[in-house]
Amino acid sequence: MALAGLVLTVLRFAESDDTPAAGVGESGSAAKLDGSANCPTLDLQSTVVLTELASAQWSMVGAVAAPQIQGVGPMEVSANGVPRCFVETPAGAVLAAANFIAFGTGRPDLGAELAASAIVPGLGQNAAIEAAGAASVSSPGAVQIVGYRVDRYDPQSTDIALAVRADDGSLASGDLVLKWSQGDWKLIVDPGTGRLPELRTLASLGGFTPWGIG
């Protein structure tokens, strides 16, 4: 797959059934829930540092690998496997970003559900849901997350860059802005199109922490 194809598949929720990774519970489990996002109530895990991302367990979502760390995220999934509930730390934000990209690419049939769950409510979310409903479902090909970078973090918003590799070996990066909304990390997208920024071609993983299924 060329990078031109990645722009359409990795960073669009509109564009293939996998079981949840170990430790992930389904929504409506017996875990204690808060009153906003129905996510398990956790103490702020300031000890969950970015270096712990190396311990992530990866499971396939279609042809794309998605990460999970028990107690950090995702801690809940829908009946269809859409991930949610990530802890309010840099590591939780990176896991959220990676899962959203993995599911948006690996399960195009779940585009509308993912947009409703993973995007900040508003015009952008509405546009993404509408685009997902209008899009034809097709297999985007194998794309893997191979690195991350946290450009900015505070407990209410964060800027994450993810590096991805296409099946032809080419590298690209995508910038994602996440906001802590309704008790979970959610994406901010273009209010008119519901899309994320386009990918940038990478010559190498310089500046990124290597991270992926291996």
Report what the structure shows.
- The chain has 214 residues and is α+β, with helices and mostly antiparallel strands.
- The model is unreliable at 1-36 (pLDDT under 50).
- It is globular.
- 21% of the residues lie in helices and 28% in strands.
- The chain has one domain.
- α3 packs antiparallel against α4 (123-134).
Computed CA radius of gyration, to the nearest angstrom: 16 Å
Main sheet properties: 6 strands, antiparallel
The overall average pLDDT, rounded, is 79
Stretches with pLDDT under 50, minimum 5 residues: 1-36
**Count of helical regions:** 4
The helix fraction, in percent, is 10-25%
Into which percentage range does the β-strand content fall?
25-35%
**Structural class of the helices, strands and pairings?**
alpha+beta
Spell out the helices and strands N to C.
HEEEEEHHHEEEEEE
In a few lines, what is going on in this structure?
The protein is 21% helix and 28% strand. It is of the alpha+beta class.
Q: What's the SSE blueprint?
A:
Elements: H1 3-9, E1 25-26, E2 57-61, E3 64-68, E4 76-77, E5 83-84, H2 90-106, H3 111-118, H4 123-134, E6 143-154, E7 157-166, E8 171-181, E9 184-188, E10 200-202, E11 209-210
Parallel strand pairs: 1-4
Antiparallel strand pairs: 2-3, 4-5, 6-7, 6-11, 7-8, 8-9, 8-10
